[in-house]
Amino acid sequence: MFAHIRLALLATVVAAAIPSTPAIAYSFKTLNNQTPIVIGHRGASGYRPEHTLESYALAIEQGADFIEPDLVSTKDGVLIARHEVNITGTTDVSTHPEFKDRYTTKTIDGVTESGWFADDFTLAEIKTLRAVERLPFRDGSFNGLYQIPTLQEVIDLAKQKGKETGRTIGIYPETKHPTYHDSVGLSLEEPLIATLEANGWNSADAPVFIQSFEVGNLKELSQKTNVRLVQLTDAADISLDGTVIYNQPYDFVVSGNSLTYGDLLSNTGLAEIATYADGIGPWKRSLVSIAGVDSNNDGVADDVNGDGLVNDADKTLVAPSNLVDLAHTLGLLVHPYTFRNEDRYLAADYQGNPLLEYKQFFKLGVDGLFTDFPDTAIAARNNLAAVPEPSTILGSLAFGILAKRFSRKRQQPK
């Protein structure tokens, strides 16, 4: 009985130590010294199939400030939330015999792929499909339960939950493969702006960021809307020593522009971005990279932890770049992606504890971040906000308990 009492008291202490909103002001090094936002990446996609209303709702319930719908177009020009035009891996379309003849091969952004594609389906047909979990190591028990939402349905949810919670819930749409969509006569920018306009969200102070990996369509959008814009950047790989190997925006590939995302993240490139966008969304390894070990000198990172895979868990952190400071100097927000709880996405230094990664990036001054697990990001943010360094006893206890929880999960057999 006493053990249960101790646990109850401990739970009370933890609840007090990690409030739903920060209890003590903390001086975040963000661009505007405001609390960094937490963006539910495809919703709470660590817990539910991505880009479903249920995933977005859970992200909001967990405290996310923004929810992120990636946008592709249906055959009849309706914007829906899917990560790719190819919907094979995120829906149950392959189980629908009536759509068997829609299976085809297309080239999108220079990559040839086969499957079923959103732009070959009307919205009515899309609504007969159900979402499935994309990643095999995540919970698949919700497969086949949830519809694919439209952008309008995502906005309706954000507004509804905003009223219910008393918080402003924003949306952070990404225009997916704009060059491809233009090539098939289904431009994304016009229906996106029209939808935002119809909802009263086509202004600089609207709870909206629009993001894109391409440059041309963001420049186009900057002339058509006052909504805040974010230039996403990507990379192809990381070398053994942690050097990030950058690739290119696809519209640059098409136009013959030789600049890479690395060039965009230089001081000159950032100055150019500042002329048409309000922020950058870099891969997190552009801020804090990781280096591998090559004991056998084969030029490939070793499987250090012996789990049969080579991923972030086998690598160690290198010194942070100065990207946040460079961007802030030019008035640009910094929203890195993507933060996930699984060991395979965490550098060995964190010892399986994602809270430590969030705290490192928050301390670097990021203005927000994309996460599949909004609850973990909120816990880390609130701990940092409520417990200035040096930590109070309550804060240390609360954070320590959360850390132990992840440590125990890591030690469980996989």
The CATH topology turns out to be TIM Barrel
Outline the biggest β-sheet.
4 strands, parallel
Any idea of the CATH class?
Answer: Alpha Beta
**Number of DSSP-assigned strands:** 17
Shape: globular
What is the helix content? 25-40%
* Estimated radius of gyration: 22 Å
Keywords: Glycerol metabolism, Hydrolase, Signal
EC number: 3.1.4.46
Family: Belongs to the glycerophosphoryl diester phosphodiesterase family.
Catalytic activity: a sn-glycero-3-phosphodiester + H2O = an alcohol + sn-glycerol 3-phosphate + H(+)
Condensed summary:
It catalyses: a sn-glycero-3-phosphodiester + H2O = an alcohol + sn-glycerol 3-phosphate + H(+). It comes from Merismopedia glauca CCAP 1448/3. The protein is of the alpha/beta class.
Question: Would you write up a description of this structure?
Answer:
The chain is of the alpha/beta class. It has one domain: Phosphatidylinositol (PI) phosphodiesterase (TIM Barrel). 32% of the residues lie in helices and 13% in strands. It is built from 14 helices and 17 strands. A four-stranded parallel beta sheet has the order 7-2-1-17. A four-stranded parallel beta sheet has the order 9-10-13-16, covered by helices on one side. Helix 1 crosses helix 14 (393-411), helix 2 (53-61) runs parallel beside helix 4 and helix 12 packs across helix 13 (374-386). The longest helix is centred in the last third of the chain and has 19 residues, at 393-411. The two termini are 33 Å apart.
